[in-house]
Please model this.
Amino acid sequence: MVGDPVTEARRLAPRFAARAGASDRDGGFPVDDFADLRAAGLFGLMVPAALGGAGAGFRTYAETAYELARGNGATALVFNMHASVTGALGAVTPELAEALGLPDEAIAARDGYLRAAAAGSWYAVAMSERGAGSRLSQLSTVYEPVDGGYHLKGSKTFCSGAGHADAYLVAARSVTDQAVVSQFLVPAGDGLTVEPTWDALGMRATGSHDLHVDATVPQGALLGGVEGLALVVAQLMPHWMVASYAAVYVGVAQSAVDAAVAHVRERRLTGLPAVRARIGRADAAVAAARLAVFEAARRVDEAPGDPETNQWVWRAKLLAGTTAAEVAASMLEAAGTSAMRRGHPLERLYRDARAGSLQPATSDVCADWLGVEALGGDPDSDGSAPRW
Ligand SMILES: Cc1cc2nc3c(=O)[nH]c(=O)nc-3n(C[C@H](O)[C@H](O)[C@H](O)COP(=O)(O)OP(=O)(O)OC[C@H]3O[C@@H](n4cnc5c(N)ncnc54)[C@H](O)[C@@H]3O)c2cc1C
Model:
């Protein structure tokens, strides 16, 4: 790591902001932002210090992601995928490995992936599928054991950073037992084909294309070294599955407030009470969502997996997603029609912010989880459909 991660992220944000409009317009991947992230050592953010990384906790991740998103939400969102992979891998302590019965060879392979991340490799997530979304229990991608490893076959969608990452976390079900869902780290190259399908309303620069997988990987690519861990990890570390995007969308929301402030100053609209009140309400809403996200992150560091921590994790995702969409819409209205022109920052931020509630856990799913919890049920198993 070159310096303090949050300070580094603050330094990079204006560089990202300067490039954000062009990559949004063309739907091009922000390769220069990723070169900056690599040079700053941020791919090692979640890698334990013993393996060459910054050894950051979830709170530091959340603050870093928030600052990056103030520059470009799309860049921060792709970075979130890498942080989720390295964060979950790095969080496997010797005690947890022992409790889950993980073999030593799997821990050695894990250490290799984390060392590579600290040295500048970055990982994408290929979990979602057309028809199944991110519901792990419904995936159609399958794997089977072959000599020396596994063969994986299937098609993924919404894979942010497809074609640019060094390796992909691929979730798949066992051919022999469809209830067994495992995750593999598949290196870029042979066996992976990117189909450029991502031309979306918002987060256009994430390059979230389809990815077709027909690859054979060595034994060490099975994360954890034991089959069937994917659903266990989702339950054990909901912060990476549910809430890591939250900081990104609060950063996008803050950017919308900043862009509106700049616009109304420039247009000399600051004396209008309705405009001022919109900005005031947005300021308070973003501050509240940020507090909730940072509180959830603090609790993840102090008591990971604790029922109250998990409650904050789901609250944080819900508040961040809805706040981003509402604030960006209100800021556009405060700024007026001239901010709706293509190329205006608020026009992009309005579209980017819209994606927050749609990313799993969607705002509706978060609200359901919290409602079941508040009513005394078991929110992980009493939903109207399986959570994962
Ligand atoms: C910008 C962006 C980047 C992304 N990047 C990645 C990535 O890098 N890797 C990746 O794997 N995926 C990625 N995704 C995909 C995302 O994580 C989801 O998998 C995807 O959005 C879900 O797909 P879906 O359209 O089938 O919707 P679903 O999640 O299936 O939702 C459809 C509807 O069903 C509801 N619903 C879903 N589940 C439940 C439930 N359990 N109970 C009740 N209601 C439910 C939802 O609220 C919604 O109304 C990205 C998505 C976006 C928007």
